[in-house]
Amino acid sequence: MVPVWVYLARRLEKRRAWMLALAVNTGAFVWAIFLGRGDAFVFGIIVVFAALGLGGVMAIPPSMQADVIDYDEWKNGTRREGEYIGFWSIMKKLAAALSAGLAFPVLDLSGYAPGAEQQAPATVWTLRLLYVGAPSLCNMIALAIAWRYPINRALHADIRRDIDSRLAKQRPTAISG
């Protein structure tokens, strides 16, 4: 689906395409919270539809990040992609560490019994909330953030023109002689 989302990002603008991808992914996946034992076929259908949006959820943000780096250079006159990439990388690792570091104690508090044939109803709902609810909530937060994302194609073109113009003025001219 990545090529489809790349096409949609060009056609609709990155922000709108990413919001659509988040909506498709989350709108399909959230239904998994209601599934129970033996619902593998329905879960398969949910996963297929969620995956339709996942390509855009994963593919579009790096391009938007590049635009943010350009925007920052335009505003501040300094190229700082290393700082941005480092920060985003640390945030991803922190999110992964927090999710694992919080999920296991929460499961323990819910009464999770490793290897048990049956889990307590509270444990089952805790598993559902951790597996479906938490990622869906994060996607909804991302949707809210994306709603206010200000960089569209026209603004980015203006930003690049201005940056390129500044860089051209800074280049030393060749001395003929």
What is the percentage of strand-forming residues?
under 5%
Report the helical percentage: over 70%
Largest sheet: none
Termini separation (Å)? 56 Å
Helix run count:
6
Number of domains: 1
> Which whole number gives the mean pLDDT?
94
Number of β-strand runs: 0
Order of helices and strands, N to C? HHHHHH
Overall shape: it is elongated
Specify Rg, calculated over alpha carbons: 22 Å
Q: Any overview of this molecule?
A:
- The structure is a single chain.
- This protein has 177 residues and is mainly alpha-helical.
- It has one domain (2-167).
- The protein contains six helices and no strands.
- It has helices at residues 2-12, 14-29, 40-76, 81-109, 121-147, 153-170.
- It is elongated and about 80 Å long.
- The N and C termini lie far apart (56 Å).
- 14% of the residues are buried.
Lay out the secondary structure:
Layout: H1 2-12, H2 14-29, H3 40-76, H4 81-109, H5 121-147, H6 153-170
Helix pairs in contact: 1-2, 1-3, 2-3, 2-5, 3-6
